[in-house]
Amino acid sequence: MSREAMEMPPKGGFSFDLCKRNDMLVKKGLKEPSFLKTGTTIVGLIFKDGVILGADTRATEGPIVADKNCEKIHYMAPNIYCCGAGTAADTEAVTDMVSSQLKLHRYHTGRESRVVTALSLLKSHLFSYQGHVSAALVLGGVDVTGPHLHTIYPHGSTDTLPFATMGSGSLAAMAVFESKYREGLTRDEGVKIVSEAICSGIFNDLGSGSNVDICVITQGEKEYLRNHMLPNPRTYISEKGYTFSKKTEVLRTKITPLTEMVEVIEGGDAMEE
Amino acid sequence: MNSVDSKPATSSLIGSEADSQRTLYPYVTGTSVVGIKYKDGILLAADMGGSYGSTLRYKSVERLKPVGKHSLIGGSGEISDFQEIMRYLDDLILSDNMWDDGNSLGPKEVHNYLTRIMYNRRNKFNPLWNSLVLGGVKNGQKYLGTVNMIGVHYEDNHVATGFGNHLARPLLRDEWHENLTFEEGVILLEKCMRVLLYRDRSAVNKLQIAKITEEGVTISPPYALKTFWNFSAFENPTLGAEGSW
Fold first, then answer.
1. DSSP of B59-105, one letter per residue?
2. Higher pLDDT, A93 or B5
3. Quick count: other Cβ atoms within 10 Å of Cβ A229?
4. CA angle B48, B89, B188 (to 5 degrees)
5. B9, B13, B15, B16 alpha-carbon torsion, rounded to 10°
6. Using 50, 70 and 90 to split pLDDT, how confident is the model at A11?
7. Beta carbons of B157 and B175 less than 8 angstroms apart
8. What are A69-111's pLDDT values in tens digits?
9. Distance of CA A228 to the CA centre of its chain
10. Nearest-angstrom CA–CA distance, B97 and B30
């Protein structure tokens, strides 16, 4: 701490100062804290009028499912969304950070954000951290230059593709894409193929599971279909209800029905946070 | 039990040297094999590539072979170990024929024999570095099983080795059903092989499809799959994103 008082901290890039001390601690027997990985299937594809992104909803912590219904499709800009695989904290933090940078940029330029802007901001951030920020992203959006789909790897390299998959379930999903993708798909065909690819990841990969989230982005509008498909419903709730043992004398019966939660979305973006 | 028991004697000769040579890593390898059951029997598909590390050295390796009257084997992994397994199987079938008792080994028996070999070699830390697919029909009963180098074995309606597990099995789980016709089976296998060709770096566009039914074995001559590379996005991928790739 006293070092910082004397000199300016280095600007940007990864500070390797604590690595030697961490290695020494591990050698002495310290167990490094495990992190929440998303072990995921995320996909994107370009169709006739725009981009469709898809993701599963399982977050794993080693062999345990930590969150059965997490959100992996992150908001970047009104016309750009980003799916994230890898360490959940990294994908959240990096997409939030670039999202706020894009907002400031929009105020500055007075124009709609472009997908390449998000791409460049993300890749330069990830590259400067040399792969230690473990975020593998599928970035998609529609701007004035048209629909775009990119994949970004943790080390900072990017690809521009008509269809892409990332995460542990990427091979299962890519098998579906390679056999079914064609150019000029309509919206419904595209959503169907994306759902099939995510389901392929959910049922064939152990790191992916639960539900399918979809986001359809076209020129000027977007549809966030949260839990578009629920192929893993709970089916084991006993219908018989609870019965007391025969010796119990029933003194009074009072039935309280459970009220249903109703979501009120007042226009605007519900997930714009 | 029968003369088959004496076969391991030859393999123990190989493993008996004190400073035994063991398979530590594979050298020339074959990539995935995919197999499915269909209405009349079993269909297997494998390409004809033998890779030497990251070089595609041999492009005419036959990885699908008939075994006796009722079975078909497909091997991925180390090619020399696959050839050794074929020698063992040839000896097995020979002794079976010499009994001349009207009985012949069916696919279930051959699969069990292979499992014992693979597992025993693994226990001696000298594995045969292969993942095998064994399919066949005997007395109307279809059988499709797989064994790998550590002795894990199971049977199923569709199996795959290597990369096929990740790329082909999701497709098969979705689209396989009972009583596929021969044409449907071939289309399904070709779909899997095409995806493998696109996404497996050690795949070669020269494949064989083998069929086994009650009547016998047919292994097709080698042919190539049609691939599609003309997506407009591939022609000018960074149209909107100059500078990236």
1. S----EEEETTTEEEEEEEEHHHHHHHHHHHHHHHHHHHHH-SS---
2. A93
3. 17
4. 40
5. 110
6. low
7. no
8. 999 999 999 999 999 999 999 999 999 999 999 999 999 999 9
9. 15
10. 30
pLDDT band at residue A6 using 50, 70 and 90 as cut-offs: low
Query: What are the backbone angles phi and psi of residue B132, rounded to the nearest 5°?
Result: -110, 150
SS3 content of chain B, % helix, strand, coil (to 5): 35, 30, 40
Separation of alpha carbons A212 and A227, rounded Å? 5
Q: What residue type is B195 in one-letter code? A: V
pLDDT digit string (tens) for B129-184? 999 999 999 999 999 999 999 999 999 999 999 999 999 999 999 999 999 999 99
From its phi and psi, is residue B173 left (phi > 0), alpha (psi between -120 and 50) or beta?
Answer: alpha
Tokens, residue B169? 């099995």
Map residue B184 onto helix, strand or coil. helix
Interface test with B, best of A137, A149, A204 (most B CBs within 10 A): A204
A171/B contact by beta carbon, under 8 A: yes
In the three-class reduction of DSSP (H, G, I as helix; E, B as strand; rest coil), residue B171 is classed as helix
Residue of A nearest to B168 (CA): A175
Contact (CB, 8 A) for A68 and A46: no
Question: How far apart are the C-alpha atoms of A51 and A185, rounded to whole Å?
Answer: 11
The answer to whether residue A139 scores a pLDDT higher than 90 is yes
Q: Give the angle subtended at the CA of A113 by the CAs of A107 and A116, to the nearest 5°.
A: 135
Closest chain B C-alpha to A81 CA, distance in angstroms: 17
Strands B55-58 and B41-47: unpaired
Question: How many other β-carbons are positioned within 10 Å of the β-carbon of residue B119?
Answer: 16
Nearby residues of B170 by Cβ (< 8 Å), 6 or more positions away: A171, A172, A175, A176, A200, A203, A204
Token code pair at residue B211: 């069929």
Give me the pLDDT at residue B240, please: 67
Mean of all residue pLDDT scores within chain A: 87
**For residue B153, which amino acid is it?**
H
Which phi-psi region, left, alpha or beta, contains residue A8 (left: φ > 0; alpha: ψ -120 to 50)? beta
pLDDT at A5 over 70: no
CA B155 from chain centre, in angstroms, equals 13
Rounded CA-CA distance A273/A103 in Å is: 12
Tell how strand A146-152 and strand A158-160 pair up.
Answer: antiparallel
The answer for residues whose C-beta is within 8 angstroms of residue A255's C-beta and 6 or more apart is none
Structural tokens at position A56: 């599963």
Instruction: Give me B81's structure tokens.
Output: 């170990």
Q: How far is A171 from chain B (nearest CA, A)?
A: 6
Contact between A161 and B237 using a beta-carbon 8 Å cutoff: yes
The tens digit of pLDDT for each residue in A238-254 reads 777 777 777 888 788 88
Looking at the complex, does the CB of residue B160 fall below 8 Å from at least one CB of chain A? no
Q: Can you tell me the ipTM of this complex?
A: 0.80
Look up residue B32 and give its two tokens: 């995935």
